[in-house]
Design a protein that fits this description.
2 copies of one chain form a homodimer. With 245 residues, chain A is α+β, with helices and mostly antiparallel strands. Helices cover 23% and strands 30% of the residues of chain A. Chain A has helices at 28-40, 73-83, 138-148, 196-208, 216-223, and strands at residues 2-10, 47-48, 57-67, 88-96, 108-116, 130-131, 150-153, 168-179, 182-189, 238-244. In chain A, strands 1, 2, 3, 4, 5, 6, 7, 8, 9 and 10 form a 10-stranded mixed beta sheet that branches. The interface between A and B is medium-sized, with 19 and 19 residues.
């Protein structure tokens, strides 16, 4: 048995999320499994580092799968790209130990959320960044981001919809970069709850526009109340940026 | 009679080009004319600074139209944006003299062509930039660009398909910026022949990858032979960036 770890980029607009569903739903997992079958004749399960929702993009998603036959890692990469559509591309491929797991062995994950700060929507950014028509106090957003760093119970910043053993997660870093008319928000942590990044960014935006005060973060953490934090930002501004093992 | 000049951004992927065609083709001109009708009750013709082909984007296209009624320029802008789809947005609007013409009065136009220089296609850039998998000598491309500056007969760098009185045009400037994995090529001139920007970029790319030599430009100009210049780059990397009057 040969185990391969791949790094993948995809355009989330082209798929109904990561996870394989029924025949009629085009998913990233399904597209990769079909391409691997075409390339190798083997029916495999592709295990992602985690699911992404419909519309969410990936610059550096990772996944592993097993093959009976022994292929060169670079050749299998090229063969998958040959058979898969251009909406998903394998950027790198390597052989890993048989006990490596793309999901359980994750040490850190980084998400990017793109916001563009113009009064009107920009047709060329729609689908790739979320419009924020309000003036934002970026320094205040950075201050709020600082309060999220560390180990916290993020129950107040998750959507219902998946069962987890614990809602405690550690955020290592939040970087907010101003790039032209856009804000790039990078969030790095040891793991994320359902919609957690989109709610973190929604909370930072509400603080940045003055709708919420800085104190809301401590209050949300201490009470665990979801309604204290900001809204879920839309999927199409979110990118799974990097997975580290 | 009140004449309005508007500046427009649109996502070329959403339209069958600029020019209104039959009922079933969605075009930028048609979308704007329909939105202006919804906003004002007046059926107008929107005169663009020029047509753009299917797939070509615009960051700063301009156009004029006339209304019987006297509307505030900013209010008409907001009303068009209210009725038009999010694939086209009016960024600014002003009243102009009745003898102003969005096409005939153009002094300079700038196009942007985006290339991304990775071995494989990138799903998140496809449709917005053209992939170039070859290593490029950017300094040589800049040298070649220098040879295009000035007044020349660009017959050798146009596609057949539209009748023009003269094929002489003046290029004022070509800027090639390296931005991450991308090249942004800005071309400014007093006017452009059919596919001229896409052929200019195709020629610069072929010179940059060593397929053509620098001498090809003088030879193409002196003989007028289209086959000496490079290929027509694809539409989806092209943006009408700015129109100056």
């Amino acid at each position: 048995m040969n185990r391969y770890l791949i790094e993948i980029e995809y355009n989330g607009a082209a798929f109904n999320g990561w996870q394989r569903q029924d025949k009629d739903s085009r998913t990233v997992e399904g597209e990769l499994e079909d391409a691997i079958f075409s390339a190798t004749g083997e029916r495999v399960t592709v295990h992602g580092s985690g699911r992404t929702d419909s519309g969410v993009h990936a610059i550096g998603q990772t996944a592993h799968f097993d093959l009976e036959k022994d292929f060169d890692a670079e050749k299998i990469r090229l063969a998958i790209n040959y058979y898969a559509s251009g909406d998903v591309v394998v950027k790198s491929s390597e052989k890993v130990d048989g006990d490596f797991h793309a999901r359980y062995d994750v040490k850190r994950k980084t998400y990017l959320y793109r916001l563009y700060l113009t009064r009107e929507r920009r047709p060329l950014l729609e689908g790739y960044a979320a419009n924020c028509p309000y003036p934002l106090d970026v320094e205040k957003m950075r201050e709020a981001a600082g309060k999220l760093i560390g180990e916290h119970d993020f129950k107040c910043m998750m959507s219902v919809g998946s069962s987890v053993k614990t809602t405690v997660r550690t955020i290592y870093n939040i970087d907010i970069e101003e790039i032209g008319e856009e804000l790039y928000v990078y969030v790095t942590g040891n793991g994320f709850l359902y919609n957690m990044v989109r709610i973190i960014v929604g909370t930072l935006v509400d603080i940045g526009r003055g709708k919420l005060g800085l104190g809301v973060i401590d209050e949300a953490f201490s009470t665990g109340k979801r309604e204290l934090a900001g809204p879920v930002m839309k999927a199409s501004g979110l990118y799974l940026y990097k997975v580290e093992y």
